Amino acid sequence: MDKVDQHISVKVRDRVTFDTDEGILAGYVNDLRRDLGNGELHAWVELDHLWPGYFRAVPVSAILTADQVGPPSTIYTDTAWTKFENVAAGSIRTDDIAQLLARAERALSAYGFIDRDGDEWDPSKLVTFRYACEIYQKKYLPTNKRKTRIEKLRQLETLYLFFDNPPAPLDDIKPIHIRQFMDWRIKLTQDKLRKEGKPVAGREGEVAANREKALISHVWNASRDSGLTDKANPCAGIKAYKESGRDVYVYDDMYSAVWKAADAPLQEAMDLTYLSGARPADVLKIDERDLREGSIEVQQNKTTHKQRITIEGELAVLIERILKRKRAINGTVVATRLLVNEAGQPLTYYALRSRFDKAREAASIEKSAFQFRDLRAKAGTDKTDSSGDIRQAQKQLGHASVTMTEHYVRKRRGDKVTPTR
Q1: What is the distance between the alpha carbons of residues 342 and 268, in angstroms, rounded to a whole number?
Q2: pLDDT tens column, 74-126
C-alpha cells in the first residue's frame, strides 16, 4: 500500500522511527505542527543520538513506526511503573522527590540492578537488552539496505515486548530465554490471527520467530564487538524451525486474470517485471536514463550485479507503451522513472503492493497462490523452457551459479521429462 495509506497514528510522546539519508533515526515526538505552506502535518522529534532539546521536523507520512511508550525523560518507578512527570518544571515538592528516589531505589533492587541495601551497583545489570539494541540500531543498522532496515526496526519492537517488559539485563539472557521467546512469538502470531477470525493451522509465526532469533544473534554479536558483554551468544544451539521455500508457479491464465483487473501502472509493472526477470525493487528504480544503446542498464540492489537487458520483442513494445502513456500526462512535471502513476510520479513499493492486492482480490485469487515476487520465478522458469538452456535463465536472473537457478526454477514446476515410450 502507499506510505500515506498506512494510517500510522502519531501522538505527542510517541517513540517514532523514520528513514533519512543518515539511515534510520529514532526519537520521541514533542509536538505536532502543520506546515504553513502546504499544510502537511509534521512531528517535532527529539532525536535519540543528540543532546536533549535538539529536534527535527519529520513529515508524519515519512514515519515508519510509532509506539506509545513515553519519552526517556519520564521517570518510572516500582513494579507497577508508576509515572512521575514534570520534575524539571518544579511541580513536585522536595518531599515528593525524596519519596520518588526511595521508590526508584526499591524498583532498581527489585529488578536486580542493586543489592537490597542499595549500596552496591552491578554495572553489568545496567546494560539492558534494549540499550544493546539501540547501540546496534545506531552503529550497525545504517549499513543495511533500506528494506532490511525497515524490517529490522519492526522486529525490534516485537523483541522489546518480550525482553523489555520489564527491562532485561543483557548478561542475564540465557539460551532458555531464547527458546521461550520463540514459543511466545508463535503464540503471539496465532492469537492475533484468531482474534481477526482467521484460521490457524499451527505453524504460523515460525518464520517470524526464526527471523527475530537471527536478529537477537546479530545484536548479541554486535554487543560483544562493542564491549557491552563478554558472554557467549545465547542463540547458539537453539534450533530454528524448519522452513520450506516458496514453490509456486504462476500459470498464464492466473497472470492474465490479475492483469485484466489491474490499472495501467500495475499492468506495466507486471509486464516489465516478467519480461526483465528483475526483482520488484530493481524494476521500480529503472529510469528513462537507464535506456542506453538498445538496452536497459540495471544494477541489482541485493547483489550489486550489473546487467544489460536487450530491448527487443515484447519488451520493446512495452517500453514504447509506457513512454506513450507518460507523454500523454498533462499539467504536471512527469518523473523520469520508467514506472509512474497516473499523476506522473514514481510508482512506490507500497503503492505497487496495494494496487496488486486489489487486482488479485478482484480476480478472486488467493494471496497464497500469487504474489508479485512470483513473477521473477515465472520469468526464469519460462526462459528455461523456451530456450532449453537453464544458463540463459541464470544470466537473466543474475544468479552467481547455475545451481541456484536450478533450485529456483525446477522447484516451481519440476523437471521436464519424456515418457518411457
Answers
A1: 12
A2: 333 333 333 344 444 444 455 555 655 565 555 555 555 555 454 555 555 57
| Helix (H) / strand (E) containing 308 | strand 306-310
Nearest-angstrom CA–CA distance, 124 and 189:
33
CA distance 302 to 208: 21
Nearest to 315 by CA among 356, 283, 344, 289: 283
Tell me if 265 sits within 8 A of 279, measured CB to CB. Answer: no
User: How many angstroms separate the CA atoms of 352 and 357, rounded?
Assistant: 9
Strands 75-77 and 63-67: unpaired
Could you tell me where the DSSP H helices lie in 278-312? 280-284
- Nearest-angstrom CA–CA distance, 97 and 115: 22
The reply to whether CATH 1.10.150.130 applies to domain 122-243 is yes
Residue type, 299: Q
- What is the spatial distance between Cα 63 and Cα 327, in angstroms, rounded to a whole number? 33
Percent helix, strand, coil in the chain (nearest 5)?
50, 15, 35
d(CA 83, CA 35): 33
First CA to last CA distance, the chain: 52
Fold annotation for 252-413 = hpI Integrase; Chain A (1.10.443)
* Cβ-count burial 141-156 (b if 16+ within 10 Å, e if not): beeeeeeebbebbebb
pLDDT in tens, 242-296: 887 777 889 999 999 999 999 999 999 999 999 998 989 899 999 999 999 999 9
C-alpha span between 289 and 266 (Å, rounded): 21
Domain 1-73 listed as CATH 3.40.50.10740 = no
Residue 122 contacts residue 114 (beta carbons within 8 Å)? yes
Mean model confidence pLDDT for the chain: 81
Residue type, 336: T
